[in-house]
């Protein structure tokens, strides 16, 4: 079983930045492909970013490309989401997700592909 705890959410003005962190335990972190999703009120959960288990490949949802950066530190068992140029429409609860994999290159885009989820952290962007 993998436990994950997100942190770093909060209230920020439009144009500002936040960095989310997700610390994982319970399994060798480098065996986990990681992702970030978000869910705004009244909307479905949306893919934000992913990173493969060795950190060599990343991808982003269209709405955040060029503004958000996902990274990981396998020595610290932590994945990060650096969010810049934040917009009010980025307001949501952000979740980190993990999936065990033996592939060093594979990353995942769909909720159902992930086995483990954090509890979520609220990000609110004011206009």
Please tell me about this protein's structure.
This protein is an all-beta fold. Helices cover 0% and strands 50% of the residues. The protein has no helices and eleven strands. The strands form two sheets. Strands 2, 4, 5, 6, 9, 10 and 11 form a seven-stranded mixed beta sheet that branches. The chain has a four-stranded antiparallel beta sheet with strand order 1-3-8-7, with no helix packed on it. The chain is globular, with a radius of gyration of 14 Å. The mean pLDDT is 96.
Q: Could you give a quick summary of the protein structure above?
A:
This protein has 127 residues and is mostly beta strands.
Detail the topology: elements first, then pairings.
Layout: E1 3-7, E2 10-13, E3 18-25, E4 32-39, E5 46-51, E6 58-60, E7 68-73, E8 78-83, E9 92-100, E10 116-117, E11 121-126
Parallel strand pairs: 2-11
Antiparallel strand pairs: 1-3, 3-8, 4-5, 4-9, 5-6, 7-8, 9-10, 9-11
Average pLDDT across residues? 96
- CA radius of gyration: 14 Å
User: What percent of residues adopt helix (DSSP H or I)?
Assistant: under 10%
Low-confidence stretches: none
> Structural class from helices and strands?
mainly beta
Question: How many H/I helices?
Answer: 0
List keywords for this structure.
mainly beta; 127 residues; four-stranded antiparallel β-sheet; seven-stranded mixed β-sheet
């Amino acid at each position: 079983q993998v436990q994950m705890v997100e942190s770093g959410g909060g209230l920020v003005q439009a144009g500002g930045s936040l960095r989310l962190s997700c610390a994982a335990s319970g399994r060798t972190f480098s065996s986990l492909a990681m992702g970030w999703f978000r869910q705004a009120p009244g909307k479905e959960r949306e893919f934000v970013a992913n990173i493969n288990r060795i950190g060599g490949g990343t991808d982003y949802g269209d709405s955040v490309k060029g503004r958000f950066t996902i990274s990981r530190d396998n020595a610290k068992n932590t994945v990060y989401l650096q969010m810049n140029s934040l917009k009010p429409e980025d307001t949501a609860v952000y979740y980190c997700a993990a999936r065990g994999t033996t592939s060093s290159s594979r990353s995942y885009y769909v909720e159902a592909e992930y086995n483990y989820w954090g509890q979520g952290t609220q990000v609110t962007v004011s206009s």
